[in-house]
Each structure stands twice: as structure tokens, then as C-alpha cells.
Specification:
single chain; alpha+beta; Pnp Oxidase, Chain A
Length: 132
């Protein structure tokens, strides 16, 4: 899936992205950096039993924003996928996380982006929108 890979490459280059979730009627935003491109999907990881994982369980709609020369905004739904092979792929990609996540990422929660609309902006003007 070419669109998802393009978005992933941008996020990877930006290094840090910001995940917005909802708690009741209050938006919550936090920085993230753990991501993976696996089986043609973009995955992000949250540590288990956090406010973020509770908020996503109640409302899986989320937005992600990153900046690196251009701005990227992604509207999506986060789908939990805690297969050991996904967690292991993240730990293999980012071994610094292994002490906290465990051998197969068992201490984290893996989500892939579904029903995503990603828009790239240059100087606040949308220049490209992709869906995956």
C-alpha cells in the first residue's frame, strides 16, 4: 500500500509525532516515537494500562500530527493488534524499548491505523491527501 508507506516514511523522518485522543469531552495530546511498518500497515505502540490505552478503548478515533518541513495530519481509527510477531518486530526495530516492553512487546499495546485520511500541508495549505 503505497499511501501508507509514504505516510510512514514521513513519520519516521520526523521522529516524533503527536497523538490526540479524547477523554470524555477533553482532547488529550501526547508525543510518541515508537512506530512500525508491518504487513503494509502503520503501527504505533502505547505502554499498557495508561490513560492513552483506556481512552483508545473507549473511543478508537484519533488524530496524529507531525512536522518536518511540512505538516502531516492523520485522522484515523486505532485498531489493537497484540500478536507477538507485531510486538517482536517493534522490539527488533527499536531494541532500546526491549527492557520496558519485553521480548515480544508484551508490556505494550500495538495499534494499527485504519480508515486513515492523511493530509500533507505546506505553509498551512493542503498539498496532498491520501487514504489507506
Amino acid at each position: 500500500m503505497e499511501a501508507a508507506k509514504k505516510v510512514y516514511d514521513f513519520l519516521e523522518n520526523a521522529k516524533t509525532f503527536y497523538l490526540a485522543t479524547v477523554e470524555g469531552d477533553q482532547p488529550r495530546v501526547r508525543p510518541y516515537g515508537a512506530m512500525l511498518f508491518f504487513e503494509e500497515k502503520i503501527y504505533i505502540m502505547a505502554f499498557g494500562k495508561t490513560n492513552a490505552t483506556r481512552q483508545i478503548a473507549q473511543n478508537p478515533k484519533a488524530e496524529i500530527c507531525a512536522f518536518k518541513g511540512k505538516t502531516l495530519r492523520i485522522e484515523c481509527r486505532l485498531v489493537e493488534d497484540n500478536r507477538p510477531e507485531v510486538g517482536k518486530a517493534l522490539v527488533d526495530k527499536m531494541p532500546v524499548l526491549k527492557p520496558a516492553l519485553g521480548e515480544n512487546g508484551e508490556n505494550g499495546v500495538m495499534y494499527y491505523l485504519a480508515d486513515a485520511t492523511a493530509t500533507f500541508f505546506q505553509m498551512m495549505e493542503p498539498v496532498e491527501t491520501v487514504k489507506f
